[in-house]
User: Fold these one by one.
Assistant:
Number 1:
Amino acid sequence: AGHVRLVARSAHPSLPLLVDCIRTLSTGTAAKRKFLVVVNPFSGKKRALVQCDREVRPLFAQSNIDFDLLVTTHAGHATERMKEDGGDLSEYDGVIAVGGDGLLYEMMQGVQTRGDRDDLLRRVTFGIIPAGSGNGLAASVVHAAGEVDSILANAFVICKNGSKPSDLSLYETAAGNKYLSFLSCSWGIVADVDLESEVLRALGPLRFDVYAVWRMLALKVR
């Protein structure tokens, strides 16, 4: 293995061709791609939008990726956008969540209501960039890719077109409600810690540890 240092003047006529070749080698395609990027500005420590602008946007630009940005404004906003009446998705090569596992979960609940759900899941690549409190899926993706868990690493995997099929689970309650899941389905104290720790969102991932201790000290009695 060796290193090659390339030096060229910005006005050199062959430079654009060289850049295109590097992009093709790194991403597997020279074609411009278009994504829908959904950002939850309240994820984690409420820095998702800033991190998207500072870290994701420049990398996407260098990888020949255009994207439309949707900044969610309320709970369920991402679900509404993913539903059939939420707007067209056919123009996108990928849909990227910038936030925690909860944001992608919201998006999947919209997808599962669509009549073209199966076709959409085959045709469109879904990705996640970790900017939330719980980033289990994002950590699994970069681990499988041999990268170190970070916003930049997840964005890099997306830019490289490093996608592969993933299993999903569909749960239906006695009331007839359906839920599409990509990690697990849980109840009891695990679900309590996940949902009720929202009040400690400012702590970031530490919220789960703190609330878990509190819930064990103050167990619910039924």
Number 2:
Amino acid sequence: IDAFGKGKQLTVKECEYLIGQHVTAALYGVVNVKKVLQRMVGNLLSLGKREGIDQSYQLLRDSLDLYLAMYPDQVQLLLLQARLYFHLGIWPEKSFCLVLKVLDILQHIQTLDPGQHGAVGYLVQHTLEHIERKKEEVGVEVKLRSDEKHRDVCYSIGLIMKHKRYGYNCVIYGWDPTCMMGHEWIRNMNVHSLPHGHHQPFYNVLVEDGSCRYAAQGAALARGQ
């Protein structure tokens, strides 16, 4: 079956013409579901690498996540994932958990293949330098819920909350008066469909499974028990 020819069924001779070699028994075999998924995700990876536009970066990021879910120890793809995070500029002023993910990826690469020490060291160094530069540019900002400009912030750090839609329990460890994530994250998370969109308080929360998330006040969180 020619998957690129609208599912047309081919004879042996047509297959030989298509691939340019004699078809032997060794070329036949059963393909399991994982192999089919690997091929599909591989095609998505190729598309994501092809163009340097926002949509292809998102496709590349999603397909990398899928591929690494199946094959978590692929060093070259892990390096590509780390470089992609670096390129997209996903850093702690937007979400500290994501920069920790980049550093975790680099540490994993170093464990799998010590020969990648140079590339890993380069990315770690530039990641940390970028963080320091941002700290110097932004400076220390003290946010007080008592400020009039923060009057819409209902919850404080340390409160135990429950997500209305997904049901997980979490604790607040930070907040912003409005969503501080980039346009890509806002689009990917469909924030515009929420009541008040990104113009509402968002909270950094530590979830009971150990993950960190960024949740909207009105549509996501309620006081937990």
